[in-house]
Amino acid sequence: MATLGLQHKAKTPVRRAPRAELAPNEDDANSIAELREAATGCRRCPLWRDATQTVFGEGPEGAEVIFVGEQPGDQEDLAGKPFVGPAGKMFDAILNDAGVDRQKIYVTNAVKHFKFEPRGKRRIHSKPNAGEVQACRWWLDREIGLIKPDVVVALGATAAQSLLGKAVPVTKMRGQVIERDDGLRVFITIHPSFILRIREAADKEAERGRFLQDMKQVKRLMAA
Ligand code: SF4
């Protein structure tokens, strides 16, 4: 059997990928496109094993603001795009209401693979742990370094923890701008999925209104 295997191998030419198909080394990536390509093969933490694909950030390289969520959800994992699920759609609508130009923003997540618990045919969101957030911060730091935004918006506790390097009480610090040691301004607010989870219609509407005010404040920070 071993001989047959060798004969088969000898007859099959080894296909080498043209240079353009090779993923650039992650340390050498000089653009968001190269960084995104490098991230497709990331093995820095175990989350790549069960997810469909890496879901990298999207938006113009000269974006004025970066919005950082927690991690891709079920629909984002399948589509390979951030913020395309129900929370992303609501987020888009509120940005529109706030007058934030979608062409001037970049959206990404603190963790770039979907973490979930299988439950029957469904995949239930599971919160990334501190080690996974820390491992994936390498990519977020590179995105921020390449885009050099005026302000970064932390959408929820996981994003705030990644951006500020420590646990942050989001409900208490919501609406505040924290300046990091490197000068980067981080605006703290909730993740839009929080609004979707509110059951009572009046409470949901009130929370949507608060988030809209947060987005208007972000717009003022962009203008400043
Ligand atoms: S979650 Fe982030 S660090 Fe972990 S494998 Fe995916 S891209 Fe890499």
Describe this structure in words.
By secondary structure, the protein is of the alpha/beta class. The protein has a single domain, classed as 3-Layer(aba) Sandwich (Uracil-DNA Glycosylase, subunit E), CATH 3.40.470.10. It has nine helices and seven strands. The protein has helices spanning 2-11, 32-39, 74-79, 86-98, 130-147, 157-164, 170-173, 193-197, 201-223; strands spanning 65-69, 105-109, 116-119, 122-125, 151-155, 177-179, 185-189. Strands 2-1-5-7-6 form a five-stranded mixed β-sheet, with helices on both faces. A hairpin with a 2-residue loop joins strand 3 (116-119) and strand 4. Helix 5 (130-147) crosses helix 6. The radius of gyration is 20 Å and the shape is globular. Iron/sulfur cluster binds next to helix 5.
CATH topology: Uracil-DNA Glycosylase, subunit E
CATH C-level label: Alpha Beta
Number of domains: 1
Major sheet: size, sense and barrel closure? 5 strands, mixed
CATH superfamily: Uracil-DNA glycosylase-like domain
Helix content: 40-55%
Helix/strand/pairing class, anyone?
alpha/beta
